[in-house]
Amino acid sequence: MREFSERIVPVILSGGAGTRLWPLSRAARPKQMLDLTGDGSMLALTAARVADQGAFAAPVLVAAADQAEAIEAALPGLGMLILEPVARNTAPAIALAVLAAAPDALLLVLPSDHLIRDATGFRAAVLRAAPLAADGWIVTFGMKPERAEAGYGYVERGAPLGEGLFEAARFVEKPDAATAAAFVAGGAHDWNGGIFLFRAETMRAALAVHAPDILRAAEAAIAGATRAGARLLPEPAAFAASPAQSIDYAVMEKAERIAVAPVAVGWSDIGSFEALHNVSAQDGAGNVVVGPGLALDAQGCLIRSEGPLIAAIGVEDLVIVATAEAVLVVPRAQSQRVREAVEALNRKEDGRWT
């Protein structure tokens, strides 16, 4: 395998709004800026995970333009802040970071709002996969499945490539419940956690083959970009012309030399209130209470308030969330439907609730 000696460059993607955690997460205060676990904001925890200066360079952030000040305040050691003029999903965001980096740079792409309990184990897995990525492979980190989850994508392990490393045989996006159960029982599939390691030149070549329209738009946006200190502002019209695609659809499901590094590091995308309940400390009845709240003869509830007292009596498996402006009540098993409320509210003319 190809040797490498330079530090890995973390690329943290911070463009999402986390609408499935509304009303906690809103456009003006997206999920990655929230303290969901009591340990600090999700963004700060992500940056801390790659803060070892012996192994990692200063992080590059790709974020929405209106997040700039909040990110700079949260991460004073930031290397570069690439500000997307519009949201175009993960493939265009990664393309910007690739073009802004040295061609030979080793990039570790991280979502800004995921939880990893075992940061030491995660760093060890990254360093174990680095020689393979330096040799021209694109590595995805497969998260050990804890249950048959139909809401996640899966990656199937193929031929071994080294200790803890496998060729990626195929990707499966959000299978049905029976297929997910078979995947977990079979033991050859991992959750696709959306964390990738690759050389910048490797990803640029893959984009050129499999997503040329995305690459061309990113190239034009970088060519016309302006700089202000650590901020890089891509040319708005050029970037807006890019197709909006995920990196999985644009590259990972199509390219050759894709590898998977399975890990068991206590990962969660905290993509719903159900997931937040699962990773939070619970009382003897399975309730999670954060802020002023009372659970009396209640079971399996998530109760979270940023202001008014919530008293939940004799109820089961509910999510009850109160902020200064909105209250959400939904069965925990249906918490993915919060996005429907956000979409309905966005159709209102003022949009003040989102």
Overall tally of domains: 2
Strand content bin? 25-35%
Provide the spatial order of strands within the biggest beta sheet. 6-9-7-8-12
| CATH homologous superfamily title of the largest domain | Spore Coat Polysaccharide Biosynthesis Protein SpsA, Chain A
Find the CATH topology of the largest domain: Spore Coat Polysaccharide Biosynthesis Protein SpsA, Chain A
Structure class: alpha/beta
Unreliable stretches (pLDDT < 50, length at least 5) are: none
List keywords for this structure.
2 domains; four-stranded mixed sheet; 11 helices; five-stranded mixed beta barrel; 19 strands
Descriptive notes:
The chain is α/β, with parallel strands linked by helices and 354 residues long. Helix content is 29%, strand content 27%. The protein has eleven helices and 19 strands. The protein has helices at residues 42-49, 68-74, 90-100, 119-134, 177-186, 200-210, 212-223, 236-240, 247-252, 273-279, 338-346; strands at 9-14, 60-64, 80-84, 106-111, 115-116, 138-143, 154-162, 165-172, 189-199, 226-228, 231-233, 258-263, 267-268, 288-290, 293-296, 302-305, 310-313, 318-322, 327-331. The strands form four sheets. It has a five-stranded mixed beta barrel. The chain has a four-stranded mixed sheet with strand order 14-16-18-19, covered by helices on one side. Strand 1, helix 1 (42-49) and strand 2 form a beta-alpha-beta unit. The mean pLDDT is 93.
